[in-house]
Amino acid sequence: MRPELVCPAGTPAALRTAVDAGADAVYCGFQNATNARNFPGLNFTPDELAQGVEYAHARGTKVLLAVNSFPTAGRFGLWRDAVDMGARFGVDAVIVADIGVAAYVAEHRPDLRLHLSVQAAASSPEAIRYYVREFGVKRVVLPRILTIPEIKEVKSEIPCEIETFIFGNHGLMVEGRCSLTNYATGLSTNMDGVCSPAAQVHYDKEPDGSVATRLGDFTIDRFGPDEQAGYPTICKGRYLAPNRDDAYYAFEEPVSLNLARLLPQLIEAGVEAFKIEGRQRSRAYVRQVVGAFRTAVDQVLAGQEPELADLVALTEGQKQTQGAAASKKWR
Amino acid sequence: MTEIAQEKSAASGMGPGRFLPPPPLFLLQPVLRRVVRRVADLHPSLFDRLGPHRSAHFVIDARGLPFVLLLVPDPGNLQFRAIARRAEPVSDARIAGGFFDLLGLVDGAEDGDALFFSRDLDITGNTEAVVCLRNALDDVEGSIAEDVAGLFGAPGRAVLAALRRAGDRRGSGS
Amino acid sequence: MAVDMTGNLTLGPILYHWDTDQKRDFYARIADEAPVDTVYLGEVICSKRTPFFDAHLPEVIDRLERGGKQVVLASLSEVVIRRERKMMQDFCATDSHEIELNNTAGLYDIDGRRHRVGPLMNVYNEATLKWLADKGATHVTLPNEVPGTVAGKMAQAAADLGVGIEVQVFGRASLAVSARCYHARAHCRTKDNCLFVCEEDPDGMPLTTVTGQPFLMVNGIQTLSQSYVSLIDEIGAMQDMGITHFRVMPQVADMVAVTQIFAKRIAGDIDGDEGAAHLAALDLAAPLSNGFWHGREGHRRFGPQAA
Questions:
Q1: Domains of chain A
Q2: How high is the ipTM of this complex?
């Protein structure tokens, strides 16, 4: 079985870059709250998506449309329209998280392939089977919290495909269950598709050369002059706690997930698709990461030892982790 | 040993001085105007992505140059000017970095987040406007740097090639 | 008696790791004195904590029921490992009491039988609500971050479906859950080797910004707001829009007094200002907030006519 390499596309140019770099599938979203990377200047207009699908399909690459945030009462139409447009443009699947949106696709677009977003937080065979039983979900994107033996066990107990993250931002909180951003900024990850909105991120340079990162009213970190920086998210910040002498990374250090070395084991565990995170990243990132993993996956499939390109410069905090996949000690 | 270190710092710290001795600002302005017009003509979709941030005033500070650049990416009032450091105007957002890192960004060769993580890029002011500008520029196919170099024909392309080589040397050396 | 006037005041599950005696004493007092008509019981946050209280559960249920309270059992919110999956299956086989599900695994196991849906499930819109109601959900508690404008639409849809709709009106807001235990991390341990250090913080472990600003509270795998949500000012509007149940979350505070204040407000015996004054007099350990309800930053607090 040949696993699919699923790659991020934040802009039409990034989509073409990913396709040209060897992606088997790209995932992208519209320029509104219907997807979980609703960032300024990012994502696709309907025309751009239609053209993107054409470009990708002409080169044998699939397009997966992320409609993976949670519509609030009274706004369901926007999500319905996103699904309908995706179907009209011929996307190969929609990635959803909300039960109501999944039900809409199952009922009104039965021919449209349904993937379950990581935002649905389906972390057990029962939760996954629920979405398969009720909505005919064909693939689940697993949360980044499972060890490889656990992934294998899940795979043996579910009647659908598995997609796992292999590279990118290392989310810590159960995705789709986090309102930290909303608490500080008034914008919601689930409802608005926003995590740490840039408009409320401020970098205050201090006389000693250090930089304080503020989100809304809260200082979430302070970097010394030569310290590596991370994403300005609450879950990557440093705080004080009663039994700690200094501010510490209470949730996680700024590190990126990189499972390149575990590719053979993941394939052996039965993973059907590998996902690269980073719709908010540049073409340069897409080109380098997709290219590196294309080579690595092909080498593993050919029975060779994969040559792993050095991607560390692209990672948050310029540090990498195998996260939960390698050991449950991570928890 | 000492020599190599000096060579490196000349390429990284001092910007492109070896290739482009800074001309007086009044000579620079018409060139910058042509550059930004060219980019705007070639890539009108860039402005759609900028949305409300079209009227934002960005100051771009390429460290080592004797001036800063002011960019207002508004198609109706397009501005791209060099301004002496002592007269730096009030801006909505300020982007500071090494010349070669900034060149890498408009050349589609560098990742903005990566530069930020490594602290090679400093952002102050309206972060959303910067992120939006970054995303809009990143959607421009090919290389803006190449488009601009093309304005100046063969000599322009030669300068870009030389700058890229210098940037690469610096990248592999550090 | 206050108990008759409460209408639909509920007491949510204890989210923190209180020791067994503390919990038994707490519920004994609730049974006797708190004007709530429903009490949610059960360990929602950490499966490792469940053995401590399970043995005493029948006794506590009996005590609460003798006090005239309806008991609803609440499920775990994180179901990943084999033990948790088994716990959820057994939980869904409960037929003695109503149950509240806090993880989708439960929706699979319950397979259409009657159940409630808890605030850690994502019910944000009418379509999701209708789907769940058609599959046996009788009662839904909205996520903390849902603004009042949305809650009103949900209350309307719930009324049409004959489903109860509940909103948390007091206590820390749950902001995130994780696979990792942050209590263990703070003490340089792992989740498997935590030695139940979370027991040291019965109202959560505070995280303060480097500038000294109180911000978040850690409770094992859960992150909560530092502020206590209080919708005492908004109760009237909530009643008007058709919210049927009002949830108070246990904190380290005089919870009998808190429930009495909310019960009086729900019954219309006091207005929002009086309620707020009574709450202020309790000298609570954290500031109050209602930003989420007003569609704003969750940590903020707006006055009666605000936003």
A1: 4-170+255-330 (3.20.20.70), 180-249 (no CATH)
A2: 0.96
